[in-house]
Amino acid sequence: MRQLLQWAEQTRAMSTIGFVLLTLGYGWALWRVPDLMHLADPKDRHNARMLVVSIGSGLFVALTLLYTARSYQLAHRGQVTDRFAKALEALATDHSDQRLGAVYALQHVARDSRPHRAEVFDVLEAFLRRNTFGGASPDVQAALKAILRPPTWTRPVNLPGADLHGANLHRANLTDASLPCADLAKVSLTWANLTRVGLAGANLPGADLTGANLHRANLTGANLTGANLIRADLTWADLTDADLTWTDLIGASLRRATLTRVVLAQADLNRAELPGASLAEATLTEATLIRTDLTWADLTDADLTDADLTRADLTDADLTGANLTRADLTDADLTGANLTRANLTDADLTRADLTDADLTGARGVTSEQLREAAKTAGLTGFTV
Question: HSE-up of 242 (CA within 13 Å, CB side)?
Answer without folding.
Answer: 31
